[in-house]
Write a structure and sequence with these properties.
Layout lengths: L2 H31 L5 H35 L5 H35 L4 H30 L6 H20 L10
Helix pairs in contact: 1-2, 1-4, 2-3, 3-4, 4-5
Length: about 180
């Protein structure tokens, strides 16, 4: 077994933790959002901690290991590498500029108003809605990694672009609808 395969395995594992963790968190947040009582606000506060403990380190390790793999066997001129780097940069930026500060504000508000306050629930729902775009972005990055499109792969690139555009409209432009809370 060579070092490239070990680094590739670590890259895939950290990406799995990052993307899989984000997906599970999103599903759990949907379930918590529909729960009566303070479950949802408390869940959002836990999410803020998970970001620092799991998502940020996994994202950074995925990026660093991907750079090492590129240096070892690929080229930064390959379109799929450039698209992956751009996608990861957008995801990390979204996390740093939108998700982390929003989660922190929600956690603070949950401390002062209580985790079941209407403002905590509304802010949490809005953040969860915007955060779904990150999962769409991650799915496109995974497709990019699998298909490794070049400049001539118009169909694959068009599909990836259409999915991103639809995700941006659905989760960044359109306002979330209030979720029904179970009685």
């Amino acid at each position: 077994m060579d070092i490239y395969l070990i680094i590739k395995l670590l890259h895939v594992l950290t990406a799995t933790i990052w993307v899989g963790g984000g997906f599970v968190f999103m599903v759990a947040a949907e379930v918590a959002q529909r729960a009566p009582g303070p479950v949802y606000g408390g869940f959002t506060a836990v999410g803020a901690r998970l970001g620092n403990l799991v998502f940020v380190p996994a994202a950074v390790l995925t990026l660093l290991l991907g750079i090492v793999l590129t240096v070892m066997s690929w080229s930064f001129g390959d379109l799929w590498i450039l698209l992956a780097l751009a996608g990861i940069a957008v995801s990390i930026g979204l996390g740093m500029v939108v998700i982390k500060p929003g989660s922190d504000r929600i956690a603070e508000l949950a401390q002062s108003e209580g985790p079941d306050s209407p403002r905590v629930r509304a802010m949490s729902a809005a953040l969860l809605h915007r955060g779904r775009f990150d999962l769409v972005l991650m799915a496109v990055i995974i497709a990019d990694m699998v298909f490794k499109p070049g400049y001539g792969d118009v169909v694959i690139l068009s599909i990836m672009g259409a999915v991103l555009a639809a995700g941006a409209v659905a989760f960044l432009v359109v306002k979330p609808q209030p979720a029904a809370v179970a009685a």
